[in-house]
Amino acid sequence: MSGSLPFYQKHHRHYDHGYRSRETESKLSQYQTSSRYTAGSSTSATRTSRGLKVSSHSGLEASRLSPVLKRAKPTYLAVDKENQIIGYVVPIFRGSQEFGFSNTEEARVRDTSAYMARRDLFTSGLEMERSEQISRREAMRESAERISLNKRIHEHGEHFKRMNEDSLMHAPEFVIKPRSHTVWEKQCVRLHCTVSGWPDPRVVWYKNNVAIDPIGNAGKYKLESRYSVHSLEINRCDFDDTAQYRVSAMNSKGELSAYASVVVKRFKGEIDESLPSPRRASTEDGPVSEYGINFQTHIVDKFGVSFGREGEIMSLGCTVIIYPALHHYQPEIQWYRDDVLLSPSKWNHMHWSGDRATLTLTHLNKEDEGLYTLRVTTKSGYETYSAYVFVKDADAEVERAPGAPLDVRCLDANKDYIIVTWKQPAVDGGDSILGYFVDRCEVGTNHWIQCNDTPVKFARFPVTGLVEGRSYLFRVRAINKSGMSRPSRISEPVAAMDPSDRARMRGTSAPWTGQIIVTEEEPAEGVVPGRPLELQVTEATKNYVVLSWSPPGEKGLEGVMYYVEKCVSGTDSWQRVNTEIPVKSPRFALFDLAEGKSYSFRVRCCNSAGVGEPSDPTEAITVGDKLDIPSAPSKVVPTRNTDTSVVVSWVASSEAKELVGYYIEGSIVGSNVWEPCNNKPVKATRFICHGLITGEKYVFRVRAVNAAGLSQFSPESEAVEVKAAIASPAPPYGITVLECVCDSMVLAWKQPSFIGGADITGYFVDYREVIDGVPGKWHEANIKAISERAYRVSDLKENKKYQFQVRAANMAGVGIPSLPSNTFLCEEWTIAVPGPPHDLQVREVRSNSLVLLWKPPVYQGRDPVNGFYVDIKEEDAPEEVWRGVNNKATEKTYIKIKNLKEGERFVFRVRAQNKAGVGECSDVTEPVLALTKPGTKEIEVDVNDDGIISLNFEYGDLTPDSKFVWSKNYEEITDQSRLTIETKGNKSKAIFNTPGEEDIGIYSCLVTHTDGASSSYTLSEEELKRLLEVSHDHKFPIIPLKSELAVELLEKGKVRFWLQADKISANGKVDYIFNEKALSQGEKYKMNFDKNTGVIEMIMESLTPADEGTFTFQLQDGKATNQSSLVLIGDVFKELQKESEFQKKEWVRKQGPHFIEYLGYEVTPECCVILKCKVGNMKKETSAHWYKDGREIKSDEHLGFTEGVLKLEIAQISKKDAGVYEVVLKDDRGKDTSTLNLTDQGFKDLMNEVFSFIANSSTPLKITSTDQGIRLYTFVSYYNDLLQVTWHYKDSAIAFSDRIKSGVVGEQLWLQITEPTEKDMGKYAIEFNDGKGGLRRTVELSGQAFDDAFAEFQRLKAAAVAERSRARVAGGLPDVVTIQEGKALNLTCNISGDPVPEVTWLKNDKEITSDDHCILKFSSGKFASFTITGVNMSDSGKYSILVKNKYGTESGDFTVSVFLPEEAGGKKK
């Protein structure tokens, strides 16, 4: 569509229809309306007429506004060589001659049938053309008349203006201001503006406030002014053209300026015309015609220079703010890498959330390294942001192995081979790369096959042995003598097929694409093709040669294919290479050629008709690598860039064919360790190396790379220190007047926001007089730079108006001047109150406080200034909410403001007062955020070992130009008579020389070239006194002791005197004194001093009476001293001596078998008593014998342990176990005895411990009922007859009787209350006596507990009575009675019960009565008898006796079995 754009949009993308003059636009629209000629919307025609360039352009606006495609009306503009419109051109219309017929030819052909067909075809078109000619002539005539009329009207208007100059004069005004541009290097840019004003303004263009001279920069700048439209054209922009451009329009009524910025971006390579062109607004004020608004795009929260490693995931993101925000409108978000548009893939995931654009690199590889650009395009234009991404090699699987190759691609693909190419890695692992292995994998499988048996050094390799029609993936691995690298990122899939087949498959187009396919005529059959043309060798290596040619010139040949032939130089023997199948495409690769031999090649065409003649042979080609390794680059020059990056430039390799790019390496000076700065080759000769260490010095080297390999390294560059580049400072701002007299003014201004990376060395002030609103020429107010931000400008004229501008200077130079100040009248101030304070500064910003500094007003008023008031308000609060910080005026020029709200932004101002009142407010400070920045540190006070007091401040994020500035009471300390300043690295120290009262005050430290890092420390009178005391202690130190001198006994009775110092150095010394005499090392005294732990000791073998006295240890460590003494006299000495002798005897005892722990006893929870002792130094021969009262009761032989426990268990101890127990250990080394007396008190103590266990095992006292009364009971785990217990009722011991008894049943102890009454209610307790405090268990027998127990007793008592009185069959009846028929049966049983029970007899559950045959009797109420006088068979059956009284019923059963005598005999047989 670029061909249809008007010339101003085609060459100047910012230009739109708003730049046309009203007259031109009107005439153009009229001409378009009157013309009936239509043209294609996407075409343009250019013709040349009389030296003029005529272009036909389509209207864009109609196509943009209407959704329906319309045929645009063309306009014909005449332009000169500079593409400026100079008029309109009437096109030359076509006549009959244009169709190619002369008069004679027309007469000759008219009668032919072909002519008749053509005439019918073109007649209608000719008639249309003729009618259009007439319409155009009429339209052009009318346009010419209108132009002439408008010209006369314009001239009349201009004459009227000149005749009425005074009434029409007005200051310059920008109708259209110049617009900012962002362009690539080597492109041209044009800035336009339209200026109105009368008289006609004079227009001057400035670059960074320096007037542009087009003559002095011939060919660079071109200035044009025509019809109030002024333009500045910058030809072939370079990086230095990035600047702020100002256009100034001036006439007698005033001056006005407009600004535009030009940003020139560095571009890697030539400009890519396929990059999307920016879209600009289409109306004068910039709104989008579709929406009627102008979008403003801002990119914030930007990603910075990023570093990753292969295999990692990286996300890049920016927040995009578009104003105004439309709900349904979304911008176009595009991501570029190295100016190549990225598309979503498995490697790149793109996301747009509506306000944030994110690019996620899912698996980093070195191919992902490069400059990433986010481009946000709206209808109003576009915004971009770029940052570099570096990708390091992943850790090698084998130590010192090279990095992975990168950028694996398929250079050429055919049906039986694919040529794979790649780029060499920057990291070789420390050893030269021996070569590369190429792997292939068929698409759809995971099986990788190595394609070459030996490594290839050339970064191209033909892969053969492929299956036609299948697709393959490739990867490459590098190898050196240490091992194999990781594989590269896999290539894109490529099919092994003939290029012609691939082209035919790719060329198939869907009908709706509108693609027009032109086919040739039907091929001629039976025609042998001719010779191939233009045969040449396009690529030659030692592994393969690639030939290419053009098909024969004849057209319409049937299915042409090709045979390739080769011939060894010096022979005439041609050998066909592809003998089996001819190739279809005019490109072929030959393999298996002998390296070093020369060959010629030719090609024959063939088809079904036969084989044609061969082509002309090629020149002799020697097989071998024709591509040489490039030469080394040269002249590597590093340049400071930022505090973490350096710009490295170099001269390209002089001999470099098919250059892939360059690798840059950097090394810290003196380290001899080189690290790659890029892992992907760059083609430019300039590169920014990021990720460097601030403050370090680096050297750099570069090498070139192509397919043949890596060049030698360039010579090392000069060393460069990594720190930010220095630039001239930005302009100051906020110019105000502090005082004014009749011939001078005192000005003040604010420091530039950007100081250029170096301290500002001074300021220069310019002034100019303003007469009737028209500024004059600038004059220098000072020749020598001034360091203060206030200056008195002298030699001014009273009652004249002036403007001022200020420039800041640093070591890089003088910056651009500030904007002109407001216009000030030079007249003497006579007000009584002071002028405004100035130079407000904010220090020590914390979350809830800050310190505000200012300078007093220059103008004092009638009386001296006697105080200041400070006001505060929130940033966004209205003016009426200013509130005072101090109610009482402060005489100081600083104040600490407290109780700020964290996270809030505040502004401040200061007012001065004198006796006349409060003066004018100062300028308001910039907004300050009340927030403590991370890493903020405070000043710390320190007193060193020499007693020197110092203030210390540390800041971690120093810039190379940062300095520590110390102040007292916020005035910089320049006199070091009281304080000495020492700075090293990121720490600074202020040392008090001779601390005294004159040093009391507030000490602060400010770090320059930071974001305001500062802190303060208040040295009050109390704090000074404390520090002086600490200093005295440090000057005259005492060695601190963890413990004073003490004595202890060691084994063998040795005596150890010792103390421990808390802190003592390796140079510490100790003197040992006894009764004021020095002791020395010898047989009697052993001294030891462990300086690591501070333990000092002296050991004596034994004590004698001569050793009674005072022992002293005297310590000295440098100038620190201390001592500690121990007095051993009298009873203290005698006890120590006695204990020493005992310990010596103990040591002798322990040389044989001995008791570590003497015989004792232990009572187990089961109340077993175990006698035990711990023994040591045992042998197999050692025996242990147990004795009781002198009689051996146990003997242990061959104990089998060197140290253990001997035990004797007494299961149920009783009085008989009392006695004296003894254990004797003995063997050939000696014996040891341990005795335990368990008689009298010893046995009593043992039993008390047993009783204690029994008491603790007792259960809580419980209540139960019996048929006799109520019983209280408890259980114990073990009962011993010697246990003494006492029962209590209401805290008094119970006197037992027949009604109240106690007893023991097993492990149950009980108290029985027979026939209880209410008098027995109360608290009961059982007390166990264990010889100590005893143990008591209690229970409350009252209330509901008594009622329940008593009711249960009554129930059980009644049940017992019933049980005793119920009817019973006591016994006497058998279960079965077997009796012979005819015999007599007599059975008797006992009956009991009260009252006497009734007796009933049953046979087979039926009652029977007494008769002669069965006699039933019940006598004396106790005996019941059953008699059958003569038993017969009918008497067999089940019989029962049933007894019954009022308390119950009971029965007894028996069975009678009668048998005949014969049955008995049979049974006997």
User: In angstroms, what separates the terminal alpha carbons?
Assistant: 139 Å
Q: Mind describing the biggest β-sheet?
A: 6 strands, antiparallel
Q: What radius of gyration results from the CA coordinates?
A: 60 Å
Helix proportion of residues, in percent? 10-25%
State mean pLDDT (0 to 100 scale).
82
Helix/sheet category:
mainly beta
Shape: extended
The proportion of residues in beta strands is 35-45%
| Secondary structure tally: strands | 103
Q: What is the tally of helical segments?
A: 12
Low-confidence stretches: 1-115, 268-291, 507-522
Please provide a written account of the structure.
The chain is mainly β and 1469 residues long. It is built from 12 helices and 103 strands. Strands 49, 50, 51, 53, 54 and 55 form a 6-stranded antiparallel sheet that branches. The protein has a 5-stranded mixed sheet with strand order 6-13-12-8-9, with no helix packed on it. Strand 53 and strand 54 (813-814) form a beta hairpin. Helix 2 packs antiparallel against helix 5 (113-163). The longest helix is centred in the first third of the chain and has 51 residues, at 113-163. The radius of gyration is 60 Å and the shape is extended.
